[in-house]
Amino acid sequence: MSSHLRLIERFEGRSAVVAIIGLGYVGLPLVLRFSEEGFRVLGLDIDQRKVDQLSAGKSNIEHISSSDIAAAVAAGFEATTDLSRVAEADAIILCVPTPLNKYREPDLSYVIGTVDSIVPHMRPGQLVSLESTTYPGTTEEELRPRLEAVGLVIGETTFLVYSPEREDPGNATYSTRTIPKIVGGATPACLEAGAALYRQVIDRVVPVSSTQAAELTKLLENIHRAVNIGLVNEMKIVADRMGIDIYEVIDAAATKPFGFVPYYPGPGLGGHCIPIDPFYLTWKAREYGVHTRFIELAGEINSSMPDHVMTKLMGGMNKRGKALKGSRILVLGIAYKRNVDDMRESPSVILMEKLRDTGAEVSYSDPYFPHFPETRDHDFTLSSTELTEEALAGSDCVLLATDHDAFDYAKIAAHAQLIVDTRGRYRDALPNVIRA
Ligand SMILES: NC(=O)c1ccc[n+]([C@@H]2O[C@H](COP(=O)([O-])OP(=O)(O)OC[C@H]3O[C@@H](n4cnc5c(N)ncnc54)[C@H](O)[C@@H]3O)[C@@H](O)[C@H]2O)c1
Question: What is the pTM assigned to this prediction?
């Protein structure tokens, strides 16, 4: 029996061991899914603290419960920093970060670092799947040669696929299991083995003809969002100048049963995907002499949104005879979107910095962040403000940056002097609310 058929048999019979590298927003839900289906799962991460926490059955992500982690541990899930343990695995799934560097170019150092650390421990008969978002060609140009350099033969001894994650943290309608999964293989045998692996845990697997097609599929999805958010942000500014309610217009347009998808404006793009991934394609397209103008334009409009919010906020303060310098501004929500505990690339933080730089006294309230987290790029030594009547009334302006459901919007409207609403949470005209 050929090697990939033996592997498929092990996937279908649940005797396969699955190693997941990178236990973050993408890796952890996969750990749980494979564990639920009866696979022995190894979780590998370089972060010792995370490994210790997970080994103790504790979750480090808000929307993943500790009881689910504990159930996986009881079922045999082991977290470790020892990457040599990939030797035990039949399938190795890479879910490590793919950020941009300071020149806004792809930073593949986590992916390449991980591959370089595992290849010495790999053996024939394994499948490797890359899930991290990246530009077309990464699997072929970066992963394949590194595996081949240690004598592994792709499509014969070793099976290589790219299968992008489509996780949407906080989405109550779709779960890891019910979100269809794209898989592209380096060879037909690779694709067969990869699709067989994911079919054990995902309801619908969608095979595509190559790893490059799978890589570009993921980018198209995120670019589609970035561009449409850019468009609606531009429409917001036009509508505002014309005195038209953009939310009324979007809701009305969304009644069209075909050909229109509603996107909503906001204070800027956040999260790990939408502000970052499109530029992976921009960078790679240059190699082919193509200039990705839609992506650049959307990026330009979306990243100008915090300045638009600042202008509206200053206008609102000015009308009340107040200068920003020395004013107390309370920012609601520092997560990048509602109801999540993730503040990567959050526009709220950009706004907080702009406010501070203008001399305002900035505070924040966010039920998901009792303390402002320590990050490399931002330094605020702040704790979340409790939304009491006094705190609201005592602020010169309340900036609604992230509309968590946990906020008491009626109370905020009743006590705040001025609310700058960047999310369209207040649909009725109120004397103390301005849209931004
Ligand atoms: N968060 C999302 O919703 C989402 C959705 C789709 C795709 N993605 C993509 O998935 C990938 C992972 O994103 P994430 O949000 O899970 O990131 P994350 O930061 O939550 O998790 C990444 C994990 O990888 C670990 N790690 C880093 N380098 C490592 C190494 N060399 N070896 C082992 N572990 C290492 C980190 O410690 C961390 O625990 C990215 O490419 C991202 O673009 C994310």
Answer: 0.93
